Amino acid sequence: MNTEGLSDAKLARRARILDAAQHLATRHGFRATTMEAIAHEAGLAKATIYAYFKDKEAAFVGVAERLAGDMVDAVTHELAKKGPPTERISAALIAKHSIVHDLVRTSPHATEIFGASNRLTGKLFANTDARIKTHLAKVLADTATRQNADAIARLLFASAQGIANSAPNFEIAISDIHRLVNAVVPSAKG
């Protein structure tokens, strides 16, 4: 949703609604979250919630849009720091996955949330993933040809995704992402 032109008060109200929808979905699941519950959690009238979002699916898409923006911001922030490419790339991938971990993977309803997300926001997150891979490739371009940088960025992104999805805990995921980046990026040099 385009939020341009919304007053500060309306932006704050919209953020309250999204916070409530996010909290309820992670605590109770997407199916159990209702617009009435979102209104109650946000401390707003149900009519106010409907003025911002036509239904809970639209509210969930709003949460996903905010999450996607947060992930891209976290990745670009880490990549912009000074330091070796391996450190910056590791930090960027870990930052992206820590957002998802902290928000969704710790929820007992993670499978349901991911299923609803794939159905409602698959294209949004595919575009977000493409943006992140482009940012990774820009950093890798210093150590590889452009074609190799794109290929290595895709490899790192997909591998980090698999690590985050399968690690028994996030500390192991962090360690494995560092190990992955350190193994792959030096081989791209030269």
Q: How many structural domains in the coordinates?
A: 1
Report the CATH topology name.
Tetracycline Repressor, domain 2
How many beta strands in the DSSP annotation? 0
- Structural class by secondary-structure content: mainly alpha
Largest sheet: none
Task: List the keywords.
mainly alpha; Tetracycline Repressor, domain 2
Q: Any overview of this molecule?
A:
This protein has 190 residues and is mainly α. It has one domain: Orthogonal Bundle (Tetracycline Repressor, domain 2). It contains eight helices and no strands. Helix 4 (56-80) packs antiparallel against helix 5 and helix 5 packs parallel to helix 7.
In short:
With 190 residues, the chain is mainly α.
Topology:
Elements lengths: L7 H21 L6 H8 L3 H7 L3 H25 L4 H21 L4 H31 L5 H21 L3 H19 L2
Helix pairs in contact: 1-2, 1-4, 2-3, 4-5, 4-6, 5-6, 5-7, 5-8, 6-7, 7-8
